[in-house]
Amino acid sequence: MKLKSYTGDEVRSLRRKLNLNQSEFWSPFQTTQSGGSRYESGREIPAPVQVLLNIAFGTDAKATAIVNELREFGNAKRKSKPASGEPK
Q1: When comparing pLDDT for 15 and 86, which is higher?
Q2: How many whole angstroms separate alpha carbon 53 and alpha carbon 40?
Q3: 27-53: pLDDT as tens digits
Q4: What span, in angstroms and rounded, lies between the C-alpha atoms of 25 and 84?
Q5: How far apart are CA 87 and CA 68, in angstroms?
């Protein structure tokens, strides 16, 4: 799946449109104010944060597709390991 790659300028614009300070905006992404400031200033935004930005600010269909893909990935991992007490 192709994700949108957010730039610092785009994220700063989104934050300002929401009328949030950096702490308020970045907190749900488990990012500190100083980390968010660095991203907004042009430092590369890490892939996990990009995924969360796509879920938060993309379309509902995009968010659903991302979550479904992650669930499939998680379910595939679980299926490959036998449950405790089951023969290998």
Answers
A1: 15
A2: 13
A3: 999 999 999 999 999 999 999 999 999
A4: 42
A5: 30
